[in-house]
C-alpha cells in the first residue's frame, strides 16, 4: 500500500513539472508585468533596462508610455521582445503612433507573442487582414478619444502662471529658453498670489473672464501664496467642480467663477511635444506641435515653440512663418518678437531684426539677452557705440550668472577693441575670466590682446589654456600661430595654421597663410 502511494506522488510530481515546462505562459499570465525604462533607441528598436528580475522571453509584449506634466499617462505603442541579456531587453516595434525616446516607462507582459497586439481594440487594418498596421512614416493624427485614456483624467483651468521670462544668446550651444509651458502653470511668481501669463482660448479660465496679467490671489476663499499651492489646490478638485477665483486687475479685486474641465486633447499632445522640446529633440517637437496646431489653430504658444524648434534646426524661413503667426494671434508677446528678430539677424537683415528687438524690449525692458542680441545687430551695421550701450544694459539687467555674465564681458571687450580701446578691452576680458575661469574664448582673446602689446609669452600661455578648454576653437589656433611665428618658432606656427585650416577648410586667407608658412619653414631648413 505504501509503495502504491509513493508511486502516485511521483506521478503527480512529474505531471506538474511537465505542465510547468510546457505551459510557462499560462503560469505567468496572472503575474504582474515586469517593468523597466528605455535606455537606448535605434530606429524602431528599443533597449529596456529592467527594474527587477522577472521572467522575460523573446516574443513577450512590451508596452511603452510616459507621464506628462499633467499626470496623464500616454501610450507610445507596442513592441515585442527580441532578445534578453541579463537585465537588458531588446525589443522591436509592432505598432506605434510616435517615435520612442530614452526614459520611457516599459511594461513587459508574457502574453503577446508572434505579432500579437495589445488587448486594446485592433485597428481596421488588423481586423481585415489579421496583421498589424505598419509603423506610420510620418505623424499620425490621434484618434478622437479621451485625452486621458488609460489614465485618470486631470482637472484643467487653462492658464499658465509665472514670470515667463526668456533667457538665451546667439552663442553656439546657448539660446535655450527659460520658460515653462505646463497644463496649469509655469514658474513661481514673487510675492502673494500668482501672475497669469497666458489664458488658453475656450478654456474654463477664458470662459470665466480670467485674463493675461491678472494676479490670482484667492481660490475658493483661500489665499494663494505661490505656484505650487495653486497647482495642488486645482489638482485635488474633481472635473466639473466650480471654483471661485479672485483676481487683481488694474489694482481692483474681481471675483470670478470657473468650472473645471478635463485636459483637452490638444494639451495632451502639446505636453508630449514639450517633452521632446525640453529634451532638445527638435524634429520630434516640430512634428508634435504640428499635430497640436491642427487641433488648436488659434493657440499662439504652439506656433511659438514650433518656430523655436525650427530655428534650432536652422529652418529659418519656416521659423519666421511660425513667429509671424504667433504674433498675429498674440501681438503682445515679447518672446516672439525677440526670436523673430534673432531669425532675421541670422538671415542678415539687421534693420528688421532691430525693429523686432525694439518691440520686444518695449514690452519687457528687463531682458538681458535681448540687449545682447540687439548689440550684435548694431555691430552688423558697424555701429559699435550703440552696440556698447546695449551690452552695458545687458550687464545691468544680468542675473549675475557666472557663464552668461562672462560672455557679456567678453562681448564688451570685443566691442571696445573695435573702438580701439585696447586697455579697456583688457579690463573686461579679465572680468570675463574671473566670472567664468572655463571660458575658452576669453583666454583666446586675452592672448590676442597680449600679442597687440607684444607680450608673446603671455599670449602663448593664454592660448594654450584656451585650446586645452576647447580643442575646436579656430581663432585660438590662428592666433597662437601668429605668436609662435613672432617668437621664431615657424614649424609650430605652421602646425597651428594647418589645424586652423582643418577647422575652416574653405577659408582662403588661412589657406594662403599655410602656403606662406610652408615656404618659410622650407627656406629655414
What does this structure look like?
- The chain has 525 residues and is of the alpha+beta class.
- Among the domains are: 1-30; 31-117, Thrombin, subunit H (Beta Barrel); 155-263, PDZ domain (Pdz3 Domain, Roll).
- The protein is 49% helix and 16% strand.
- The chain has 20 helices and 14 strands.
- It has helices at residues 2-22, 24-28, 124-129, 204-208, 227-235, 265-278, 282-295, 300-312, 316-329, 334-346, 350-363, 368-380, 384-397, 402-418, 422-435, 440-453, 456-469, 474-486, 490-503, 508-524; strands spanning 34-42, 45-50, 61-67, 73-85, 88-95, 105-109, 155-156, 159-161, 194-199, 215-219, 222-223, 242-249, 252-259, 261-262.
- It has a six-stranded antiparallel beta barrel. Strands 8, 9, 10, 11, 12 and 13 form a six-stranded antiparallel sheet that branches. It has a two-stranded antiparallel sheet with strand order 7-14.
- A hairpin with a 2-residue loop joins strand 1 and strand 2.
- Helix 14 runs antiparallel to helix 15 (422-435).
- It is globular and about 85 Å long.
- Mean pLDDT is 79; it is low at 1-31, 112-151 and 163-191.
Report Rg: 31 Å
Helix run count: 20
- Residue-averaged pLDDT: 79
CATH topology call of the domain at 155-263: Pdz3 Domain
CATH homolog superfamily of the domain at 155-263: PDZ domain
* CATH architecture assignment name of the domain at 155-263: Roll
Assembly state (oligomeric): single chain
Distance between the termini: 108 Å
Low-confidence stretches: 1-31, 112-151, 163-191
The dominant shape is globular
Main beta sheet: 6 strands, antiparallel, barrel
